[in-house]
Each structure stands twice: as structure tokens, then as C-alpha cells.
Amino acid sequence: MKRIILVAVVLLAASVDMQAQLVKFGLKGGLNYANQSGSGITINSDNYDKEAITSYHAGLIAEIKVTDGFSVQPELLYSTQGATYKNAFEEFKNELGYLSIPVLAKINFNKTVSLDLGPQASFLLSERNNVNFKDAETFEFGVAGGLSLNVTKNFFLQGRYVLGLTEASQDAEVKNSVVQISAGFKF
């Protein structure tokens, strides 16, 4: 009986250790360089030029190892995006806060570098602007692609471009786009 219990404990410990190697959780955060593309927003029949804004993102990640060269990385991020609109007389900043859920396929070139590609769904949580635009869209769908660099076993850096495929505003044909630079820790 003692041998059966000992074998069961060893198998359970090995299973837990194997599961720990298959799934890693972590935190990440970084800078966004966000802009909006498409036809401009007109305010009182005036056209405005768009300029990018610098903002931030932060959240949780999970990396699920499928094979030695492939894993899936779902994330749950708070990300601010938008643009600054200006003409010769006025300047308005439109900043949108999203709960973004990218699900990325990670193709590992080696233990250090991986290519990350996948879809991203974003839900509008907040809208801060200095002008009375009509309502922003509450859901946005996009694609994300970039590179990850594992600096150590637990510390990583990422660079990513996210292109919005759906409209960000109900009153104009604008789509969000953002370049993200991140640092994170997996445990």
C-alpha cells in the first residue's frame, strides 16, 4: 500500500511539474504610439489633421506551450489609443481606453526570438476627449503582429503593431492603429 501511495505522489508531482512547464502566466506593460487612419473627423465643417499620441498599455498574459516551436499567448490588456486633431486654430485630443484581448500564435525561431501573430478583440471602456464627437464604437476587431525577445527565462521584451479592421467612430471612417513596445515578466 505504501508503494502505491508513493508511486501516486511521484506521478502527481511529475504531472504538476509538466503542467507548470506547459503554461506560464505573467504581467506586461509598455508604451503605445497610437494614431487613427482613414477619413478625418470634421467638426463644425472644419477639417482637422491627425497626429499620433503616446499612451500606455498594461495587463496579464498566459503562454500555452503546444510544441517546442509553437505556443499560444492570450492576453488581457488595458490599452489607450486615439489621436490628436488640429488645424491652424485649435487642437483636440481624443483618447479611447480599451480592454483588449489579443490571442497570438507564437512561432519560436529559437529560445530567444519568436514571431507573434493573431487577432485582437477590443471593448471600449472609456472615452476622454476635448471635443464633443459623436459616440465611439464600443467594439473593435483588429490584427496584431510583432516580435518577442526572451532576455532571460522570465523577463521578455515585445514589439508589436496592431491594425484596427473595424471603425473606431460612428461618425467618421477612422480606424485605430498602434505600435506597442512592452516589457514583461513570466512566472
TrEMBL record:
Transmembrane segments: none annotated. Residues 1-20 form the signal peptide. Keywords: Signal. It comes from the Bacteria. The keyword Signal applies. It holds the Pfam family OMP_b-brl_2. Residues 19-167 form the Outer membrane protein beta-barrel domain. The keyword Signal applies. InterPro entries: Beta-barrel_OMP_2 (IPR025665), OMP/PagP_B-barrel (IPR011250). SUPFAM superfamilies: OMPA-like. This is Outer membrane protein beta-barrel domain-containing protein. It comes from Flavobacterium xueshanense.
